[in-house]
Amino acid sequence: MSVKDELQKAHNQLDKFRHKLTAAKRAEQLDVIAQIEREMKKLTAKINTLKSKQSKQLSAKGETITSMKFHRALTKEEQADMGKLKKSVKGLVVVHPMTALGRELGLEVATGYAPKKF
Q: Does pTM surpass 0.70?
């Protein structure tokens, strides 16, 4: 299971616990409330570790991409015909600014990274 899937699963479980906690508080079940709060703390800690793991993976991927020798912003025409561009440039990696990797790299426009000039 990928980190992203594990993170989503953990968030879903946390949401279920929040709903259970609300119901237990209405029913004034103190022992159930305490147990749910303990489980929520464990889950929150797990979420934090998964987020840090995801961030490290993203940083590592960003480093490998930025270490490529050549990069430049892509024109609208190149973006429109991405298949043709990828066939003509071997090893091309395109990063869009709205993706997590694009935000990590601080991109403003879609940028292509390649080992050779294109």
A: yes
